[in-house]
Fold this protein.
Amino acid sequence: MEKRVLVLNLDHSPVAVVSPQKAIVLLLLQKANCLSVYEFLQIRTVSQSFDYPAVICLNRYINIPYRGVLLNRVNLFRRDRGECQYCGSKKQLTIDHVVPRSKGGKSSWTNLTTACHRCNVVKGDKSPEESGMVLQTQPFKPSLAYFLAEYAEKQAEEWLPFLSAKVMP
């Protein structure tokens, strides 16, 4: 599998994840500087070899409108690491409104959580306090850096120093 390259803006905020070929082009055109490389990996051409970039930083600031992380089922399960936030089960997962919709609860990052079918039925149309249930973690709105750090833990440890200050709980 090909390793990916993290692109940081001039202020070191994450902008994108690109292929190594795109990263090399940005470096050769002097539009970016390499901040970190993958050890023991190289990109070879017929006449040259290059260090395999892991993190690059753009040489000028690119204004990118804030897009946020899309609230959907996949991203919600990723944020909650694929487990029930009440009992820790990883089976029969559903989405639970912490404050039920019937009591004014909205479908937002801070009011939705992952729950197994059993816990969702037990909680029913009540708040966690009313049903005697305790959330393991409070729901929060994740940032792009949060999901990039999750990827980095599995695929690209070289990214972690550049994402650690920007990640939420």
User: Anything to note?
Assistant: Strands lie at 5-8, 14-18, 32-44, 49-58, 93-97, 112-116.
